[in-house]
Each structure stands twice: as structure tokens, then as C-alpha cells.
Amino acid sequence: MEEINLYDISFRSIKPPDMAQLEKWYAMTDELGYATGFQRLGDVRDKLLSYPRMSMMIILGEDQAAGFVCYEMKNLNGKNVAWIHILLVDPAFQNKGIGSWTVRKLLEWFESMDTVAVVVSVSEQNPRGLKFWENLGFARSRALEKILYGFGTKGVAIMKKTMEKRRT
Fold first, then answer.
1. CATH number assigned to the domain comprising residue 44
2. How far apart are CA 54 and CA 47, in angstroms?
3. CA distances from 39 to 23, 35, 36 (A)
């Protein structure tokens, strides 16, 4: 595969023909199970594709699907907090900077929306995923993990990045 120019990457809304690609990725549990939560697309489709969650395809060049991202903006006590639910990069495009580039672009956008923090959940069984988020400045939030544990969530690391306040 040729070198990827990260400036050729863009986002776009999910279109009906993208469902086949999403089905394929969700079926790839050996390679993408941690990203999908080992769920079937049919079980989560409505949740991923409906407000307030925002889902976008990660596009390389003209229209090559390289991945998928799903996030949600929440207003907590008057402050914007973003929760990245899924970041998935097709195995053929992994280790080429696409995931890191995607997160950096999202962080820029979140900052423009005066977001105070960005949160992501990562399986504790996914050391590669934990390292990925750590390398992007996220750190475990034991306080959030404790809260979610009270709701029955186990085996999940909650990673958080506090956004720097923009200077005006």
C-alpha cells in the first residue's frame, strides 16, 4: 500500500451504502472487537446513528472508507463534555497515523465548542488501546471508573483529557 497523506483524510456523514462497510467492520471481532465492544452492528445501529450521538465515516481521498468515529456532546452543569464512544480504523489502514489524526481533529473541534473534557472508555484487556489514548494525552480517571462501577460497568478504563482553556 502506498504512503498515506494525512491531509487527504476527511469526515463525512454516514450514508446508507456505508452500512455494508460498518457490518463488515463489526463482524471483524478478532481485529476490531475492542473498538466495537464485541457487539453486532444490528444491536447498536439505532443508538449509533441517532441524536445526540454523532457518527461519521473517516474518509481517505475521494471516498475510501478508512474508519468510523462516534461521539456525543454532553452538557454537565453548564459545561461541555465530549464522550468518544467508538474510534475504529480499518485494519488495512492501522498504524499509519489515521486514528491519531482523527482524535487530534476532534480535539480541535471540541476545543472550538468550549469543551472542558473529553472522555473515552477502553477495555482493560486492550493494552494497545490504552497506550494509544495515553499517547494522545488521556489519563485514567479512577473517579469516573468508580461511578460507572456503581452502575455495573466492569473491566473498563475510563480515560479523560482535560482541555486547556482557550485564550481570548
1. 3.40.630.30
2. 10
3. 11, 9, 6
